[in-house]
Amino acid sequence: MAPATSSLFAETSTDMSRADATKRISVKTLVESPGLTSIPTNYSYSTNPNESAGSNPNEDTFPVIDFSLLTSDDPHKRSKTIQDLDRACQDWGFFMVVNHGVSESLMKEVLEGCQEFFNLPVEEKMEYAGRDIWQPIRFGTGVDVKVEKFFFWRDFLKVIVHPQFHFPNKPKGFGEVAREYCKRTREVTTELLRGISKGLGLEECYIEKKTDFDAGFQLFAVNLYPPCPQPELAIGIPAHTDHSLLTLLIENEIGGLQIQHNEEWFNVNPIPNSFLVNTGDHLEILSNGRYKSVSHRAVVNNTATRISIAVPHGPSLETAVGPAPELVDDESGRPAIYMPMKFKDYLERLLEGRPCNLDHVRVPVA
């Protein structure tokens, strides 16, 4: 599909307080327009009656994985941490990673680089505007209306960074910082996947080999959520799961991520300098449903801009991922519940404007 033109982001009427704005612009531009007191109707999100508001969990609610213990030479510490990791993937599909070895200064630098990118003049960001998910560098806002009937309260930058690294050439120095950050997150993810393989009772490098992880698809996805005058009517990103194996996320000091657990929504308040990690669709497939791809969403506020950087790590595009044979046993009542599908084909459904989730690879129940 050819990249979309700048008309996708055409400016609305100068009276930005009107709630009937019909043309799509970047949310940052919308917020910076004078007199904005309400959101345009096409940003209004109708909450499902069964969709509860997020609550604040107890301090020790979310699982925490100490990366230094996962990579320890002490077999007892490593074994205990692998058990904790396995339990976190089963019970929550989400955990925080501490003592991961990625410097706080690098994490701060990459967040600052993202802020500088969104502060670039509109015409410079528009060089990367497009709808094609295979466009290596893509700037946009909201979401494709073929899939959703309303706009998200966010602007985004999505960059394919592996197996080939791409990146905008502005702001100066941002690409070098991002390259190092993506390299380090990939190293952390590799060790997490090795621990997860062991937790599943498989050989340590099983997931790496079966997903061709060395050639795996890695995305650098930045979301900017400007202050919203009516946050109760808008949504940053609705409830969804990720298509990857694992996604590593960091944010500035503004919260907004919510995780669903046992039909309840919980606000996530990160431990400083931690990675927020969630399991994705393809880890659920590979584990034959032992691990669940966790549903999560992003809510907005009316006071401050939130920036999050999500780095999903997936199989190689040409790899068809199915349940590990070692985790399938028809005789003991553990049949395969998912059918293999190439990762590229799984993602292609996005281009076709169709929902992309686990339902279309689930084995029909007789």
Automatic annotation (TrEMBL):
Q: Which domain of life is it from?
A: Eukaryota
Keywords, A to Z? Answer: Iron, Metal-binding, Oxidoreductase
Domain Fe2OG dioxygenase span(s) in chain numbering: 212-315
Q: Which PROSITE patterns match?
A: FE2OG_OXY
Metal-binding is among the record's keywords: yes
What residue spans carry the region label Disordered? 39-58
GO molecular function ontology, one term from the record: metal ion binding
Q: Does the keyword Protein biosynthesis apply?
A: no
Instruction: Name the Pfam families for this protein.
Output: 2OG-FeII_Oxy, DIOX_N
Q: Which InterPro entries match?
A: DIOX_N, IPNS-like_FE2OG_OXY, IPNS-like_sf, Oxoglu/Fe-dep_dioxygenase_dom, Plant_2OG-oxidoreductases
Which PANTHER family does this entry report, sorted A to Z?
OXOGLUTARATE/IRON-DEPENDENT DIOXYGENASE
Q: Which family does it belong to?
A: Belongs to the iron/ascorbate-dependent oxidoreductase family.
Q: What is this protein called?
A: Fe2OG dioxygenase domain-containing protein
Biological source species: Rhododendron simsii (Sims's rhododendron)
